[in-house]
Amino acid sequence: xxxxxxxxxxxxxxxxxxxxxxxxxxxxxxxxxxxxxxxxxxxxxxxxxxxxxxxxxxxxxxxxxxxxxxxxxxxxx
Length: 77
Prior knowledge:
With 77 residues, this protein is mainly α. Helix content is 68%, strand content 0%. It contains 5 helices and no strands. The protein has helices at 9-21, 25-32, 36-43, 51-61, 65-76. Helix 4 crosses helix 5. The model has no long low-confidence stretch (mean pLDDT 95).
């Protein structure tokens, strides 16, 4: 998959978090405590990283919540 410059956070999550761990969207969503639909929308670029999601991503995949929000801000700009 070709990433955009800068990539949507969903692309980063899919390529750098889910793929290496062999996680499905369903399993990752369950681990994050969100619905599969909400997580799929994030992965497919139809929604962005909220502050609450940033905290969940930080706990699950590392990085700070601020870094996840920064990814979203860079994409939005």
